[in-house]
Design brief:
Elements lengths: L2 H16 L31 E10 L15 E6 L1 E6 L4 E5 L3 E3 L6 E4 L6 E10 L8
Antiparallel strand pairs: 1-7, 2-5, 2-7, 3-4, 3-6
């Protein structure tokens, strides 16, 4: 299958879902954007070796990730709880279950669960084979 067909088929399926689509099938847009949560333009790695990585992350109440940054903007979908992203300048942004966003690039930050319930979120990286999607 050529590359244009690989991209065209999912688009046709989504378009038909918006127009009524198949019975029992519903597509809901959860995020659409051209900039990260810090207002940075989206950029993709220029590579002959692309790789998609998806991770399910869980944070216990009071839990936090290591301080880190990303060379590309990961897509994050909050599945449960409220995820707070804290930046080195002390600013914070919080996202409740059901929200999707593009995380900042080249910006040190920490993911935190400031609530009393567990937080679960899906992280999707459009990266490059053999290269890390984050730096610590």
């Amino acid at each position: 299958m050529d590359k244009s067909a690989q991209y065209l088929i999912p688009l046709v399926l989504l378009a038909s879902a918006d127009a009524g689509g198949a019975e029992g099938f519903r597509a809901t847009e959860v995020m659409k954007g051209a900039v990260t949560i810090r207002g940075q333009s989206i950029r993709y790695p220029a590579t002959a070796n692309p790789e998609v990585t998806a991770m399910l992350v869980e944070l216990a109440p009071g839990g936090a990730s290591d301080r880190h940054q990303h060379p590309i903007p990961p897509y994050i979908q909050v599945l449960q709880g409220t995820l707070t992203v804290e930046f080195d300048d002390g600013s914070r942004q919080s996202f409740e279950a059901g929200r999707g966003f593009l995380e900042a690039v080249d910006t040190w930050h920490t993911a935190r669960n400031l609530g009393e319930d567990p937080v679960k979120f899906l992280v999707v990286f459009m990266g490059e084979q053999g290269k890390s999607n984050f730096m610590r």
